[in-house]
Amino acid sequence: MLYFIPIPIAISMLLAFILLIAVEDRRGVRFFAASRDRFDARIARTAFILRHVDWGAFFNDVARAGFERLLHDVAHGTLIVVRFIERILTRTVRSLRMRRLGEVAPAEAMMPKQSRIAGTILYLKSTLKRTRRTPKRTRTQDVEDVVEL
Predict the structure, then answer these.
(1) What is the pLDDT of residues 75-114, one digit of tens each?
(2) Is residue 48 predicted with pLDDT exceeding 80?
(3) Residues 57/76, Cβ–Cβ less than 8 Å
(4) Mean per-residue pLDDT for 132-138?
(5) Per-domain residue ranges for the chain?
(6) pTM for the complete prediction?
(7) The 3-state secondary structure of the chain, one letter per residue
């Protein structure tokens, strides 16, 4: 039932085009000539490209690039899974070794090693905290501290 809608639209557009051509032919002037010329040039360029493209090579290249991307994504996902399993196994082996030796694993051993930059920043922050001056006293505090005789 829905196919009855596009058919009248297509017929009315065809009739409007024929009427436009007839009016332009009778007056001898094209409506919207500049924009229609640009559109015609674009259509001609597109048709030229479509005629001269090697479609077999194009689709071969697109398929190759897509397959390479797919393989890259699969390899990346596999690497993430392997690293996840490696971390789990490393923690398990460390805890088993510590149990065997009768020691409790320190919490710091589980943390990854800090970079030099992060260590330097933490050192500077702790140094600044230790060397900060006490805030200056205000005048009202000085007045309260004076004892009257």
Answers:
(1) 999 999 999 999 999 999 999 988 887 765 555 555 566 7
(2) yes
(3) no
(4) 61
(5) 1-52
(6) 0.43
(7) CHHHCHHHHHHHHHHHHHHHHHHHHHHCCCCCHHHHHHHHHHHHHHHHHHHHCCHHHHHHHHHHHHHHHHHHHHHHHHHHHHHHHHHHHHHHHHHHHHHHHCCCCCHHHHCCCCCHHHHHHHHHHHHHHHHCCCCCCCHHHHHHHCCCC
